Amino acid sequence: MEDKIFTISVYSENNVGLLNRISGIFLKRHINILSLNVSESEIENVSRFIIVVSTTEKWVQNIVGQIEKQIEVIKAFYHTDEETIFLENALFKIASNLLFDEKQIQNIIKDSQSTIVTVSRDFFVISKSGRRSEIEELYEKFKPFGIMQFVRSGRISVSKEKMEISTLLESFK
Amino acid sequence: MGKIKISGAEAVIRCLLAEGVDLVYGYPGGAIMPVYDELYKFQDQLHHVLVRHEQGATHAAQGYARATGKVGIAIATSGPGATNLVTGIADAQIDSTPMVCITGQVGKHLLGSDAFQETDIIGISTPVTKWNYQITEASEIPEIIAKAFYIARSGRPGPVLIDITKNAQFDELEFSYEKCTSIRSYVPVPKLKLDQVAAAAELINTAKKPFIVFGQGIILGQAEAEFKALVEKSGIPAAWTILGLSALPTDHPLNVGMLGMHGNYGPNLLTNECDVLIAFGMRFDDRVTGDLKTYAKQAKVIHFEIDPSEIDKNVKTEVAVLGDVKEALTALLPLIDQKSHESWHNEFKEKQKIEFESVIKEELNPTNDKGISMGETIEMINKHSKGDAIMVSDVGQHQMFACRYAKFNSTKSNITSGGLGTMGFALPAAIGAKMGRPDREVVAIIGDGGFQMTIQELGTIFQTKVPVKIVILNNEFLGMVRQWQQLFFDNRYASTKMINPNFVAIAEGYHIKAKKVTKREDLDAAVAEMMASKDSYFLEVMVEKENNVFPMIPTGASVSDIRLS
Question: Which Gene3D superfamilies does this UniProt record tie to the protein (chain A) (predicted)?
Fold first, then answer.
């Protein structure tokens, strides 16, 4: 079986220590996490983890089984890229003088459908949401002019199929 | 129960009492002192056994849990007290033993300050616990301890660690206790699906060469009677993993023996000849399966299991029956045809004959003059215990001999460290087993290596006068490693030779009756004297130095490649 990109979604209680417990499952199997995002979910007091890994389907099944086994995990799923809608977000901090000295920059911003978050005397910040490749493309375009800071978030995604966590939580009652 | 205002430490004790606990193992220290102060006040209701090392507390709690089916309790202080629990917790996790460990922790205001005896035991124990939690407020104590017991004992059991900061032990709370019966994110027992049971029955009924492999799940699920009924009605030969040993009496005609690396010849070879393999409450550990690529590939596999993450983990199943094994067996039994599978069963008998002639005969009645064999010592214990004793074995060659040759009439009789292979397990585990089942004879079988890993628990035996019987099989080697060095490392005995002290003198130093046997003709009388003793008894048997355990499946080889010599 060959390695593929999988997005693991975990619905869990919002408890101290659970992140450690979940990341330990990857550590034990010597699998590197490509990206990790933890946030609130559509259900009150329920957290949602989005974890991206590159591994075989057999391993991802094993990992999801182990994650789901954790007491505070409500449900875990895994999906391939085709089965999800996903994106990442990036921030670029760039020197303000470039905005006026290098006219091209304004076109790059316009063409990339990114937004200017803030402009100050010394720097401006651009936010770009999209696929990894789009962010990387934008990065390459800004690079020759000099990027003061760059940061990219972990993947966030929603699945095309229903997850029905609310119904599941109802059934636990 | 109405609300009363008490300290967190007292609440801990009242929670334990409310869970039916009357015995705990532990070792005091600074951060757990408020709890010990309450243990002092409640000593007429809750018996605390002072071990000599915190690891001993965990193994004693495990021995207690394995012998009784109840939750074992270990208590320790913060820092080194807590880290000393880790081996036992990891052992309980991999062998699914219900245990609750309670550790003291520095005060909440000191967390993260590298205070004296502060250690992140939550971080350290996370990978080896079923659940863990740090209590920093007294008011959390009742709810969290209730959850701890529920989680430890429900579903696939396991160890839980609760770390309690010192302020939470001192502070007062309004106490009331309610047992935990459910957690919304936790499904301990998947709901049994009758169509899966029916599919399993269909496969079993049409099988020509069905073969049952069973593990500790039968014991944990208290399904011994239902399992025996199934074996007898279906006429299917059944073999066990070492944790499944004693779930079916060893002399049962359909019990065909032990699976795995040092298991019996027939069950291993015929794993690759059966047409349907029916697994109950076992997890296809690598010591059982050998090379997975050549394991039972010809067979359709049915897996009865409580833990969904075990399905297809190592072996691909045709039918998975998730749920409680007792319930599943009860539903399965009426659907099963009465059969005898005589010719198939004869294949096991033939293989057994081959193994007897080439291995067992010489092991149990040695004709060489190299000394007493481990196998004949176990056989001698069988003769005097009549199969009624609980046997607690440590880890190594003696463990394999004990599991291969011990006779058991009843369940929960074989207590050993299976998954983790923890040397030093047996002595403290035997203490726990005997305290849990004072009505039964408890015999610990230990090698000279493992004995010295937890030898200090002789002090616990001396202090509590718990009448356990201790048999040391002394070959003056770390025998299992030496065997591998002989077979796979060209006889280079790197650091496996043991220069041992006078064990009898050490036991006698603890005022334990002790004897050493070096000659075969003295063995019978010595074992008889040990078994007749009302008090604890220490018997050192000098055994053949370079005896090997066979049969053997070398690591990574197929079950078909099992070697008789």
Answer: 3.30.70.260, ACT-like. Chain A, domain 2
